[in-house]
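Hi all, long-time lurker, first post. I run a small reading group and we've been trying to get comfortable going from sequence to structure in the token notation. Rather than ask abstract questions, I figured I'd post a concrete chain and ask someone more experienced to write out its structure so we can walk through it together at our next meeting. Sequence below, copied exactly:
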Amino acid sequence: QVRLVESGGGLVQAGGSLRLSCAASGSAFSAHAMAWYRQAPGKQRELVAVIAASGNTNYVDSVKGRFTISRANANNTVYLQMNSLKPEDTAVYYCSLIRPEAVYWGQGTQVTVSS
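-- Answer (accepted) --
Happy to help. Here is the structure in token form:
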């Protein structure tokens, strides 16, 4: 059974930084792409960043140059380093593991950026 547990969210002032972590278990972590999504109140969930098994990364335009996704296959963890945070980054952030037959989700972690 795949399990994803996010941590690292919190309240930060605009311009600050946070580092989210997602620990995975129950799957061959290194063989699959991992991603971070976010969902703000009243909005649809959106893809923020994805990292392939190869290490290639992609980002939504609104976070390019500010966020960095990375993975540590040795401890089955994916990270999202978020710098220069803006109030519009406020959302629940979800980690996902992408397999051909299904996408698995964590429970989410709240990020709140105050102006």
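A couple of things your group might point at:
The chain has a mean pLDDT of 96.
Residues 51 and 57 are 4 Å apart (CA to CA).
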